[in-house]
Amino acid sequence: MRVFRFDEIDSTNKFLKEQNNLQDYDCVIAKTQTAGVGRRGNVWVSNEGMAIFSFALKEAENISLEEYMRLPLIAGISVLSGLKKIEDLDYKFKWTNDIYLDDKKLCGILVEKTKDFFIIGIGININNSDFGYAQDRAISLKNKTGNFYRIEDIIFCIINEFKRYFSEDWSFVLKEINSYNYLKDKEIEIVKYGESLGVGVAKDIAEDGRLIVEIDGQEKLFNIGEIHIRK
């Protein structure tokens, strides 16, 4: 595992994707990020005081692509578990790639594929208080506790948790994730290709990583790549 550190970078994910000699668990850490993006190309606000990092995971021949589709979930529970070792707060996992605290966004996750590597990018609000356009919808650890944190200690704790969860049996990981399911029993609107499919009630995350939603008394499965959830 090699660690690359920057005061400022355009994108930690982009840096790793551009490396020709990438190695398993190579990690890049930045104080600020100027061109970070989230899922669906959304702007990823990346201010100093955040934990901004990405790491590489080498694709293994004995693991199917379907199993790798679980990576955002595994990364999510790893972040949550790592943070609980730092501060034992009431974190929630918002399917499929966010960690929430007090109904506000604490962390975002973006998983991308390049050649035979998966790049896992994570941004966590730690010591910062400026959340840009998301000022009313975000929170940091320092906001919550008033404490100041050593960011790299948190980063390496989370990567170690990821290594542990990645080697765990999926049924165990899924049970853990569902115990922190932020959306469960919340009323949500399902929007597909810009068209509303109606309002339903979110249930558990299913075995294949899709979200179970009860609509008009029937349980249906949805993939985050197919739909947009509007609360």
TrEMBL record:
InterPro entries: aa-tRNA-synth_II/BPL/LPL, Biotin_CoA_COase_ligase, BPL_C, BPL_LPL_catalytic, Transcriptional_repressor_C. PROSITE patterns: BPL_LPL_CATALYTIC (PS51733). Keywords: ATP-binding, Biotin, Ligase, Nucleotide-binding. The keyword Ligase applies. The keyword Iron-sulfur does not apply. Transmembrane segments: none annotated. Gene3D superfamilies: 2.30.30.100, Bira Bifunctional Protein, Domain 2 (3.30.930.10). GO terms for molecular function: biotin--[biotin carboxyl-carrier protein] ligase activity. This is biotin--[biotin carboxyl-carrier protein] ligase. It comes from Fusobacterium mortiferum.
